[in-house]
Every structure is written in structure tokens, then in C-alpha cells.
Specification:
- The complex is a heterodimer of chains A (about 325) and B (about 325).
- Chain A is of the alpha/beta class.
- Chain A has helices spanning about 1-20, 45-60, 75-90, 105-115, 130-135, 140-155, 175-190, 205-215, 230-240, 255-265, 275-290, 315-320; strands at about 35-40, 65-70, 95, 120, 135-140, 160-165, 190-200, 225, 250, 270-275, 300, 305-310.
- Chain A folds into two domains: about 25-140 and about 275-290, Rossmann fold; about 140-275 and about 310-320, Response regulator (Rossmann fold).
- In chain A, about 50% of the residues lie in helices and about 20% in strands.
- A six-stranded parallel β-sheet of chain A has the order 2-1-3-4-5-11, with helices on both faces. Chain A has a four-stranded parallel β-sheet with strand order 7-6-8-9, with helices on both faces. A two-stranded antiparallel ribbon of chain A has the order 10-12.
- Chain A is elongated and about 60 Å long.
- With about 325 residues, chain B is mainly α.
- In chain B, about 80% of the residues lie in helices and about 0% in strands.
- In chain B, helix 2 (about 55-80) runs parallel beside helix 7 (about 180-200) and helix 2 packs across helix 11 (about 260-270).
- In chain B, about 50% of the residues are buried.
- The chains are: A alpha/beta (about 325), B mainly alpha (about 325).
- At the A-B interface, helix 1, helix 2, strand 7, helix 8 and helix 9 of A face helix 2, helix 5, helix 10, helix 12 and helix 13 of B.
């Protein structure tokens, strides 16, 4: 029985290896004409991040001399650490990390620095201490997303109203920052009040459930402000189904394709477009710069959030169609 | 003469009262202890929130739990055989993306549903065959399926949601028949069929026999492997039904759907009195278990309890519910 178990495990390991190897069949060589980039990504199973991965992969496909090895940490920091170690052992030319947890990224950066491999962090901003040790950070500021989102909501409400806040997965940095940005704006508007705040785990179905329960609680809402678009869409579905949409403003963040369609149909009032593709592209371009030894003036390469409403939604829909 | 007779009568009376307590009421409470937990929660909530007992809110609760309820029913039958199914959430995701890629406007609803059912049956069959013929613990085989099916869902959908579903398909998740949401109707049907299957048929009898003592079941001539494979297929089938309903409900196929669903489903089964040691468990129990989870989620949202506290309270209440129930079981 033990032998069988071992055999089966071996099969699983082999299968996993095959799948992981799909994107990177060749081994790395150490010449400058052939640049190998290791990309340690937090989780493949995320809609928004998949566009960031596309940004990296499109560059990979367009450049014959660039090879990207992309790996999935499955939201596990220790796994990400070992994946970065593997990149170092393989002798890649630069490493792009989108940290599972920004607090756990420092040892990875140290290990890469010890091996003289430049590190580019993308999407999730590390601490100031880590910022000093890396080549560049490519991303957008989560706080800014929450601020511009709530400012637009405040404008639409005329500076007063009851707000329901839908948080993403508790404990994540983006949730803390985006919500902080929301609350900063609410503080500036004495007429605005947060009457409900709860987590819907960044999921559409959970957002729907939460909104159903909020509607039943009999609370009055003037706006539902969600940490991402998926939850906002869930809230919209629940409000429509209950026939309670009325004049309630719904706002999300990210600007996914789905969300932009909702904006175009007038169902989602506000979203903040975070340019996933641009972040991916920016990260790999920074990695190439690092390999070529280019010096950067500013380590923070900002890919700014952009406010999307019905007025300007078409230009963002075009971005996805590229 | 009169005196002794009357005292004997009293003694007999007392005895029968004690017997009544011991043989009727006691077992009744222990058998339905978890029902009282649910009732207590409902009564407390109806005082705390005036909107709790509104018809729409109650319908919402049942619709919200119908998905984990359906999965929980399958998991219950598996757990009765001392097995476990960790793959439910991933089977939901795989079903979701495969069905959504076909259920576009203009395509046949029946074929869409067959694709969904096919995914569940195939995953369940693989779980069952690997566990029985490969003689490895179901914890491992279904863990493998959990990882592989999620990966397959991502691969198939390229990590992206699949929108544009047909109206007849979305009716499964959003429709209402005679005032009752469709997911609730399907949940009820699944519950009734499964209860009959488990309580009234040879299949059910053998399921309990395998869970009670697998060696004895084999000696009695039960084809254990065959029944186990059927049981895992049934669990897979129910996961895919839940996957289709959830997809129709959110009107998009998502590879990230159903994450940690298996744990909620197992919690529903265990709260409902299913023993992880096998041989014990009922479908009505699991439905009550799912309702407890649903009432809890709904109540905390209605009251506006902070999300941090929600998680702590949920953990505490789930464990206490089972504690109350298991104490009563021990007394009986």
C-alpha cells in the first residue's frame, strides 16, 4: 500500500512538473543576448492578476531574446520564497516578484541581492526598508484608488449620505489601504456617514449575499462602495433583484472588462481603473532595464489609477481590446 | 387494602414517567438537539432584528445556503462511509467554467446541463476509483482532485470569467416559481431524493453498513468498492449541480468559484450530527446544519457586526453547536 501511495504521489509530482514546465521548456543560458527573467507570482487563480500576467507574457512573446519563467505561489509566502530560491539557483538575470505578503518579501530580496540578481517588485508595494534594496517597484497606490473612488461618490452625493463599505479579503494590504482612502474622504465630508462595513471576500457571490442581508436589515443606503468591482457587481445584482436600486450609487475598483460593461450600461456608477496590463508591461521593461544596467532616477514607477465613469468608459474598453 | 394499592399505583406511575423521560423525551432531545440550537438562534434573532422573520429574508437565507446545502448532502453520505470529499469546491469551479463556455444564448439548455452533470460524475468517479481500487485514503485522492480540478478550471478558462449566459440557464439561479426561488426548489428535491436514498433503500443500508464496519460489510457480501464508487459519483454529481446553480446565480462562469466550499459543506454535515468516525449521519441533520450556518451569516450581517468579529463568532458558535449536540448524544 505504501508503494502504491508513493507511486501515486510520484505521478502527481510529475504531472505538476509537466504543467509548471509548459511555459518554460528551455534552460537558461548566461549570455546577454538571451535574457531570462523569473516571475514569482502570488496566485494564478485571480481574474485581475491574469491581465498583469498577460502584460508580462505579451512582452515575452514579442521578444525572441527574452524568456520568462512564471511560477504560481498559490497564495503561500513560504512557497514563494522557495520559488525565488529556485530562480537564484537557476541563475536567472532578473526576478520580478508580486509578493503574496509584502511583509514576507524581504528575505527573498536579500537572497537575490546576495546573488547579484536585481529584483523588481510589482503590484503590491513593499516597506520602505525593502524599497531601498530593490531595483524598482512598479505599481499603483491602493490608497489613491480608495481616495479617488470615494471623492467621486462624494461628488455624486453632493457631500452627504449613508455609505455601505464592502471590504475585500480581510488582512490584505490592498483592502486596508483602499478602505483607508475611502475613510479619509468620508472624514472630510461631515454629511457622509459609514452605516455598514463588512467583508465580502472580493467575491461576486459573497457581495450579492451581503447586499441581500443589508437590504433586509432595513438600513438606508445612498451609496455602496466596494474594494473591488466583483463585489460591486454582486451588490448591483442583489439590489436589482430586490427592486431596491433606486438612486443608490455603486462604486468599485479595478476596471475589469465586466465592470466596464456595467459602467457603460449605467449600472456601475464609478470604478477606478488599475492598469493591470500596464503594470505587467512596466515590470518586465524595468527588469530588462535592470539587466542592461540602466540607472533609475526614481524607484517607484507609478502606473496611476484612473477614474472611470460613463463619460469616459469607452476609452478604457478600448484598452482591453488591444 | 386501599392504601398499598394506591402507593403501588404511584410507584408504577413514577416509573412510567421516568421511563417516558428515559425512553422518549431524552432520546428525542438528543436526536433533535441541533434543531433546538437552530430554534434558539431563530428566536433570539427575531428579538434582536425586526427584519429577521420577514418572508423575503427567510427566503434569502435558504437560497444562500442551498448551494452549500446541496454539496453538504453529498459530503454527508461520503462521511458516513468514513470517507471525506475535499474536492467539492474545485468541482464547482470546473463545472462553472465548462458549463458557462457552452450555455450561451441560442445553445441547448439540456446539453449545457448534461455537460455540468458529466463533469461532476467524472470527477466523482475518479475520486471513487482511485480511493477504492488504488487503496489510498480518500483524504489524499480527493485532495489531489481538489488541486487538479481547480488547475483544470483555470487552464480551461485561461484564469478568466466566462460571461454571456442564456436566459433559460440563468433562470436556474435567479428564477422564481410560485414565489419560491429555483435554487431552493432544487435544494429541496435533492434533499428529499437523498433522504429517501439513504433512509429507505438498499443503497442507504449498505452505506451505513460500510461506515459502521467495512470488514463486516464485506463478509456480508456487499460489493464495498462498487458502492463506494457510486457514493463518490453521487457526491461529485451534487457538487456539479451546486456549481451550475451558483454559476446561474452570479451569471458568469468563474474558475475562482467555490473556494473553501468543501469546508463549509463539511461543517454543515458535522453540525448536523454526522460523525467523522463514520456510520452516523442523516440528510435532515445536514440541512439543519446548513441552516444554522446560513442563519448565523445572515444575523451577523443584519446586526452589522464587524467582519473581524463575524469570523470569531462563527467559529465559536459552530463548535458550541456541535458540543451541545454531542453531549446529548453521549447521555443517550
Amino acid at each position: 500500500m505504501n508503494k502504491r501511495l508513493m507511486g501515486l504521489l510520484a505521478v502527481f509530482v510529475l504531472l505538476a512538473g509537466m504543467l509548471a514546465g509548459c511555459g518554460s521548456a528551455t534552460t537558461s543560458g548566461k549570455d546577454k543576448n538571451h535574457i531570462v527573467i523569473g516571475a514569482a507570482m502570488p496566485v494564478f487563480d485571480d481574474k485581475w492578476l491574469s491581465y498583469l500576467y498577460d502584460g508580462i507574457n505579451q512582452y515575452d512573446k514579442a521578444h525572441k531574446n527574452v524568456e520568462v519563467k512564471m511560477v504560481d505561489a498559490k497564495n503561500d509566502s513560504s512557497k514563494q520564497m522557495s520559488q525565488v530560491d529556485t530562480f537564484i539557483t537557476q541563475g536567472v538575470d532578473a526576478i520580478i516578484i508580486n509578493p503574496v505578503d509584502t511583509d514576507a518579501v524581504e528575505p527573498m530580496v536579500n537572497a537575490a541581492n546576495d546573488a547579484n540578481i536585481p529584483v523588481i517588485i510589482v503590484n503590491r508595494m513593499p516597506s520602505k526598508k525593502v524599497m531601498k534594496k530593490i531595483y524598482a517597484y512598479v505599481g499603483s497606490e491602493s490608497l489613491e484608488a480608495g481616495t479617488i473612488q470615494m471623492k467621486k461618490v462624494a461628488e455624486l452625493l453632493g457631500g452627504k449620505g449613508d455609505i455601505g463599505l464592502m471590504n475585500g479579503t480581510l488582512g490584505q494590504e490592498s483592502v486596508v489601504k483602499r478602505t483607508q482612502g475611502n475613510k479619509d474622504v468620508v472624514k472630510e465630508n461631515p454629511g457622509m456617514k459609514i452605516v455598514r462595513e463588512a467583508s465580502a471576500d472580493y467575491q461576486r457571490s459573497t457581495g450579492m449575499t451581503l447586499m441581500e442581508n443589508w437590504i433586509q436589515s432595513g438600513k438606508h443606503f445612498d451609496a455602496i462602495v466596494a474594494n473591488n468591482d466583483e463585489m460591486a457587481i454582486g451588490a448591483i445584482s442583489a439590489l436589482d433583484e430586490a427592486g431596491k436600486r433606486g438612486n443608490i450609487i455603486v462604486a468599485g475598483i479595478d476596471g475589469t472588462i465586466d465592470a466596464l460593461k456595467y459602467v457603460k450600461d449605467g449600472k456601475l456608477n464609478v470604478t477606478a481603473f488599475q492598469d493591470a496590463n500596464g503594470q505587467g508591461k512596466g515590470a518586465i521593461e524595468a527588469a530588462i532595464d535592470a539587466v542592461k544596467g540602466k540607472k533609475l532616477k526614481n524607484k517607484f514607477i507609478n502606473i496611476p489609477f484612473q477614474l472611470v465613469t460613463k463619460d469616459n468608459v469607452d476609452e478604457f474598453i478600448k484598452k482591453w481590446q488591444k | 387494602m386501599g392504601n398499598p394499592t394506591s402507593s403501588t399505583a404511584t410507584a408504577v406511575n413514577q416509573g412510567s414517567e421516568r421511563n417516558l423521560w428515559k425512553e422518549k423525551i431524552g432520546p428525542f432531545i438528543s436526536k433533535y438537539g441541533i434543531v433546538f440550537v437552530l430554534l434558539a438562534m431563530v428566536i433570539i434573532m427575531s428579538f434582536l432584528s425586526p427584519s429577521f422573520l420577514k418572508t423575503q429574508n427567510l427566503l434569502n437565507i435558504v437560497r444562500q445556503i442551498s448551494f452549500i446545502g446541496i454539496v453538504g448532502i453529498g459530503v454527508t453520505i461520503v462521511i458516513i462511509t468514513t470517507g471525506i470529499d475535499l474536492s467539492s469546491g474545485s468541482v464547482i469551479a470546473l463545472t462553472s467554467v465548462m458549463v458557462a463556455s457552452f450555455a450561451h444564448p441560442g445553445n441547448s439548455l439540456i446539453i449545457s446541463l448534461l455537460i455540468g452533470v458529466g463533469v461532476g460524475v467524472a470527477c466523482g468517479a475518479i475520486n471513487g476509483i482511485i480511493s477504492t481500487k488504488g487503496k489510498i485514503p480518500p483524504f489524499i485522492s480527493t485532495l489531489g482532485m481538489m488541486t487538479a480540478a481547480r488547475g483544470l478550471a483555470l487552464l480551461y478558462s485561461d484564469g478568466r470569467p466566462i460571461p454571456n449566459l442564456s436566459d433559460p440557464f440563468m433562470f436556474l439561479g435567479r428564477g422564481v416559481i410560485a414565489g419560491i426561488p429555483v435554487p431552493i426548489i432544487i435544494f429541496a428535491l435533492v434533499g428529499i431524493v437523498s433522504h429517501i436514498l439513504l433512509a429507505k433503500t438498499k443503497f442507504g443500508k449498505y452505506t451505513y453498513a460500510i461506515g459502521g464496519n467495512v470488514q463486516a460489510a464485506k463478509i456480508c457480501g456487499i460489493n464495498v468498492d462498487r458502492y463506494l464508487i457510486l457514493i463518490y459519483i453521487y457526491a461529485g454529481l451534487l457538487s456539479s449541480i451546486a456549481g451550475m446553480l451558483l454559476t446561474a446565480r452570479v451569471s458568469v462562469g468563474q474558475p475562482s468559484m467555490g473556494v473553501s466550499f468543501e469546508l463549509d459543506a463539511i461543517a454543515a454535515a458535522v453540525i448536523g450530527g454526522t460523525s467523522l468516525a463514520g456510520g452516523v449521519g442523516t440528510i435532515p441533520g445536514t440541512i439543519i446544519g446548513a441552516l444554522i450556518i446560513g442563519v448565523l451569516n445572515n444575523s451577523l450581517d443584519l446586526l452589522g457586526v464587524s467582519s473581524y468579529w463575524q469570523q470569531i463568532l462563527k467559529g465559536a458558535i459552530i463548535v458550541s453547536a456541535v458540543l451541545i449536540d454531542s453531549r446529548k448524544n453521549k447521555k443517550a
